[in-house]
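Sample pair:
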Amino acid sequence: MTRLTLPLLIVALTASGCGRFGDSGWNPLGWGPGTASPQTLAPEGGYPQVRDPRPTVPQILDAGWQPLADGRLLVLRGFGPVKGYHSAALVPAVARPGDPLQPDADGVLRLRFVAVPPAADATAARLPANPVTDSITVAVPISFLRLSRLTAIEIEGGDRMITLRR
């Protein structure tokens, strides 16, 4: 009986792999190069792009470059009218897939300086901010390779737009 069980099991597994043509990886008819698998898991047309909902920092105090070994550090300082601003970042001005530091076709990298203000009922929302101690600082490292592709960087804030040349 054991001699008959193993061959029957092999035949049953082989036959189950030959269901509809090409549906199974066990089907020898589907082993050829004719079937192509998708190259990405992204939906057709890509993912929807959503602009960052955080508001811009109300006032930009200054922007500048700091040297790095393999590029420069873009440093921005901003100021809010009250204490408690948090989650500051530099985000692309236009939502686009891929690299957020990719310049536009004209070679200009357009960014927004954003931060989340304190909740209206928070204690910090009632305290006026001091520009010396309550500044909002954000920095982004940019390599020399990326800098070579840029002609300028435009940073949008609440009160103005700053343009930095490389």
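The radius of gyration is 28 Å.
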